[in-house]
Amino acid sequence: MTCEEVIKKLRGLGKQRNIEGMERFGIHPKDEKLGVSMPDVRNMGKEIKRFFVATQNDRGLHKLASELWLSKVHEARILSSIIDLPEMVSEKQADKWVKDFDSWDLCDQVCMNLFGSLPFAFKKAKQWTSSKQEFVRRAGFALMASLAVHNKKAIDSQFAEFFPLVVKHSTDERNFVRKAVNWALRQIGKRNLNLNKRAIKVATQIQAMDNKTAKWIANDALRELKSEAVQKRLK
Predict the structure, then answer these.
(1) Burial of 72 (0-12, 13-18, 19+ CB in 10 A)
(2) Can you tell me the distance from the alpha carbon of 105 to that of 111, in angstroms, rounded to the nearest whole number?
């Protein structure tokens, strides 16, 4: 199973209506997009993993993931994040990939599929928010949100370290950043009752800022964090 074979199969699954749907949702990658649905991409990921597991070829799987990323095909890059092995991903690779992000869906998919499972994920989440590049900064907050949902072993203090960064960047007016800041704040605040109380306090602090973006982030977060549904679940 080669990179060329995988991309050929992806091309066969692409549909123009899916490309049009991507554009409606603000997905405008600079790289080539094929219009392959996410269910089809995920099914391919499962098929590829089964093949390499059967042959016990972890290095081959990691190599294929790297080749798919270098192809600069949008769906191939998402697929690479599905099949790559977290234990084989270095900080150098993560830093290189994050600089290639050119759309919000690629950013979020890679953070959820792969980066959230890296042993240095908390470190990178904090580091990437300091970047001036829109999608690198978004990746930092998308990674925070992913960790809040999927990392069941992390302790509250690890997430509390993210709050100052949420406050600091709550005035970033760029659409893909402000939405990710809001996303991170909401997901951390829905993790448990303790973090919910702390997130509400942080959101209230942000709400008091004399900044339109900050107020939007805070008001939207408070609406969910204080909602009856969330409070009932956490209690």
Answers:
(1) middle
(2) 10
Q: What is the mean pLDDT of residues 102-112?
A: 97
Last residue of a domain, one of 39, 67, 88: 88
- Quick check: 217 pLDDT over 90? yes
Give the torsion sign (CA, 156, 158, 161, 162).
negative
The size of the chain, in residues, is 235
The one-character DSSP state at 86 is G
3-state secondary structure of 190: coil
| pTM score, whole prediction | 0.94
Structure tokens at 52: 């390499």
139 pLDDT above the threshold of 90 = yes
Our count of domains for the chain comes to: 2
Separation between Cα atoms, residue 69 and residue 89, nearest integer Å: 13
- CB of 181 closer than 8 Å to CB of 169: yes
Q: Counting Cβ atoms within 10 Å, is residue 89 exposed (0-12), middle (13-18) or buried (19+)?
A: buried
Tell me the three state secondary structure of residue 73.
strand
Statement to judge: residues 171 and 233 lie in one domain: yes
Find the domain containing 163 and state its range: 91-235
Residues 80 and 97 in one domain: no
Residues 197, 151 share a domain: yes
